[in-house]
Design goal:
The protein is built from one helix and 19 strands. By secondary structure, it is mainly beta. It has a single domain, classed as AttH-like domain (AttH-like fold, Beta Barrel), CATH 2.40.370. The termini are far apart.
Length: 304
């Protein structure tokens, strides 16, 4: 079954179809994360597209736009193209992004043409969550798929060209999405190599914690059903380090230590412009036994 489609939707205003991609190129020390979210009942597309460069400057943008006809995987000059469903995507952009370095903000000319080739079967969070916890999570896109992959191509920024060769994660979710509904969520992914990766989500709704994710060992996705995460936070509320104890559906356990290396923060606001939640999008360096990998450490934290 092809899941790389825009699904049928109901009448909820905040029903959303979301496509997200991340990558980290170790050699170039470049982190990127990008998303297109389609809200058909609001006739709106949300997007963000960011790079954290070797000097830790943040280059990107976040915004939204309307549309009049049936939506596509394009917003604000960012385009996601399906070449082979669930196997190969093309990620493209050509335009202007804002470079933020300290208090300085300057426009940057950016173009990229990247291929995201998946390396494991699609993983469905329904393999981890069902029943009451599934019902509780419905305001944060209850349908949720994950896959990791390798990312190759060309990034040009202000006249400098980078040959990208990295690993990353893609996330596809659909359903009602209210960014300010959870008290907190942690969404983590790590790619150790082309045959080993993991993804973990901890969603906190009131007093209920919902754990999900997978560990891919080169042969199969192992569903994660419990995630104990001890996080050390910086003074600004962003994550600094993590210690995790994960348990899969068959009782296997995985212990990891993670150091946060690069940081960005994205605000999510109410219709009147008040910031209600902050999304910390950061790069983590993960260690598990004798393996080391890199990936996203994402924390969404509600401010009140």
């Amino acid at each position: 079954m092809n899941t790389d489609i825009i699904h049928g939707f109901g009448n909820e205003l905040d029903w959303s179809e979301s496509f997200y991609f991340s990558l980290y190129d170790r050699e170039n020390d470049i982190l990127s994360f990008m998303r297109i979210g389609i809200k058909p009942n609001r006739r709106m597309k949300e997007l963000f597209c960011f790079f954290i460069m070797p000097d830790n400057s943040l280059v990107g943008k976040k915004g939204h736009e309307g549309y009049a006809i049936f939506p596509s995987f394009t917003a604000g000059g960012l385009t996601f193209t399906i070449l082979k469903p669930e196997k190969l995507w093309r990620l493209g952009f050509n335009g202007e992004l804002m470079r933020i370095s300290g208090a300085s903000k300057t426009p940057s000319s950016v173009a990229f043409d990247l291929a995201f080739e998946t390396l494991n079967p699609v993983f469905d969070y329904r393999g981890c969550v069902s029943g009451e916890k599934e019902a509780i999570s419905r305001t944060v896109a209850s349908e949720h798929l994950e896959q990791f992959g390798k990312v190759t191509g060309i990034l040009s920024m202000d006249g400098k060209e980078y040959r990208i060769n990295g690993l990353g994660e893609r996330d596809h979710s659909w359903g009602v999405r209210d960014w300010n509904a959870p008290k907190m969520w942690a969404w983590l992914n790590c790619q150790f190599n082309e045959r080993c990766a993991l993804n973990v989500t901890k969603l906190v709704m009131g007093s209920v914690e919902i754990d999900a994710g997978y560990y891919y060992d080169g042969s199969a996705n192992r569903p994660i059903v419990r995630a104990k995460i001890d996080t050390t936070f910086a003074e600004d509320g962003s994550p600094d380090s993590l210690r995790m104890e994960l348990t899969d559906k068959d009782g296997r356990r995985y212990s990891l230590d993670t150091e946060v290396l690069k940081k960005a923060v994205l605000p999510f606001q109410s219709p009147d412009g008040k910031t209600l939640s902050l999304l910390h999008e950061t790069l983590g360096k993960y260690r598990m036994r004798d393996m080391m990998g890199y990936g996203i450490v994402e924390y969404l934290i509600r401010k009140n």
